[in-house]
Design a protein that fits this description.
6 helices, 21% strand, DNA-binding, 10 strands
DNA sequence: CGCGACTCCTGCCGGC
DNA sequence: TGCCGGCAGGAGTCGC
């Protein structure tokens, strides 16, 4: 489900509602996520306050003063707040009962997400090697050009590599490459300096536009109190195999790259 | 070190 | 209608 825009929309949707609130009780209904939810979490968190909710790539970071609750939504995860007594969903695995009769619920049918604890996020295994944020100035044409030299992978895999840049998943990789006029199968090493610049700008534009639209809701993504996003209406190639290219009218192609579906226009992208 | 394949899991959809 | 194969927004891990 979630790439950077969806995680950011989730954060924006719940930050104001949870920041400054006390965690009255933790409820772990299913601890078998990508990694087990740590056993000591209840003791660590109950009674603490959520000081802030931040994001790094696709990770959410709840600053609880004594440490950071680290959360990833995986492929099918979502996070929303509800009145305490509102009915649970089948895959609501982790619930933070907050001061003021609010419950923050992590729902994740496929259980590829995670809920972890760290006192030193800078050095945490999952965070320490992450590349720059795509919307930051340090992610620019020169940086991507440098990173693409002597790489054997195709360009789509390069921009989906979180050590190169965080937050670009399968949807936005295809969309950004379409916006740039670059085929997903192009070799990274053959990317020109100009193409690097174009691609970086396209990634920024596409991600910003998606955040503005509330993210992409393909199946069941929702944030905050459950409202869907609308960026899927602006998708130009993703999941549009066989449909007409919005620019040239040609047929959108689908090709597997690294076991993931990739969509492009053979006419517009070279 | 870089790279490709595999893996975890549930749900849904299309074809027969 | 029911069953089955394939596919799904991620990314760590393993073997080469």
């Amino acid at each position: 489900m979630p790439e950077l825009p969806e995680v950011e929309i989730t954060r924006l949707g719940i930050a104001a509602a949870v920041e400054g609130r006390r965690i009255e009780r933790l409820e772990v209904r299913e601890s078998r996520l990508r990694w087990p939810i740590p056993r000591g979490l209840k003791k660590r968190l109950e009674g603490q306050y959520i000081l802030s909710l931040k994001r790094r790539g696709k990770y959410l970071l709840f600053d609880c003063g004594t440490g950071i609750l680290l959360m990833h939504l995986g492929m099918s995860g979502s996070l929303c707040y509800r009145p305490r007594e509102s009915p649970l969903k089948k895959h609501d695995h982790f619930i933070m009962h907050l001061q003021g009769d609010i419950s923050l619920r992590f729902c994740d049918p496929r259980r590829f997400g995670c809920v972890l604890w760290t006192v030193d996020p800078e050095q945490h295994k999952l965070l320490k090697d992450l590349g720059p944020e795509p919307l930051a100035d340090e992610f620019n044409g020169q940086y991507l050009y440098q990173q693409s030299r002597k790489r054997k992978v195709v360009i789509k895999n390069l921009i989906m590599n979180s050590k190169i840049v965080v937050g670009v998943g399968n949807i936005y990789a295809s969309e950004s490459l379409f916006e740039s006029g670059i085929r997903p199968t192009r070799s990274s090493a053959k990317l020109t300096r100009l193409q690097s610049e174009t691609l970086v700008q396209a990634i920024k534009t596409v991600l910003r536009r998606s955040i503005k639209a509330g993210g992409t809701t393909l199946r069941d993504f929702s944030a905050g109190q459950g409202q869907p996003g609308y960026f899927q209406q602006q998708l130009k190639v993703y999941d549009r195999e066989g449909l007409a290219c919005v620019v040239c009218g040609g047929s959108i192609k689908r090709k597997l790259i690294g076991q993931r579906s990739s969509y492009y226009c053979g006419q517009c992208q070279k």
